Every structure is written in C-alpha cells, then in structure tokens.
Amino acid sequence: MKRLIALLLVAASAAGLAACNTVAGAGQDLSAGGHAITNSAEQAK
C-alpha cells in the first residue's frame, strides 16, 4: 500500500512540474506577442 501511495505522489509531482513548464512557456509566448504588437505600433507612429 505504501508503494502505491509513493508511486501516486511521484506521478502527481511529475504532472505538476510539467504543467508549470507549460504555463510558463505560454506566458512567455504571450509576452513575446505583446512586445511584437507594441513594436509595430511604435513603428506605425
């Protein structure tokens, strides 16, 4: 039983770390898109 609980904790930790990386990457992509829009607006002035 302890082995099953330990396995579930490891799996949950791995899934949590993968989700953090995904969210961080999405945030960086949105930030880069925002910078591109800002730069385009500045050039159009």
Automatic annotation (TrEMBL):
Name the coiled-coil region(s). none
Q: Does the keyword Protein biosynthesis apply?
A: no
Question: Which PROSITE patterns does the record associate with it?
Answer: PROKAR_LIPOPROTEIN
Keyword Metal-binding present in the record's keywords: the answer is: no
Example GO CC term: the record gives: membrane
Q: What keywords sit in the KW lines?
A: Cell membrane, Lipoprotein, Membrane, Palmitate, Signal
Under the heading InterPro entries, the entry gives: Entericidin (IPR012556)
**Domain of life, per lineage:** Bacteria
Look up the signal peptide feature and give its range: 1-18
Q: Which GO terms describe its biological process?
A: response to toxic substance
Q: Say which family it is in.
A: Belongs to the EcnA/EcnB lipoprotein family.
Q: What is this protein identified as? A: Putative small secreted protein
Q: Which organism is it from?
A: Paraburkholderia bannensis
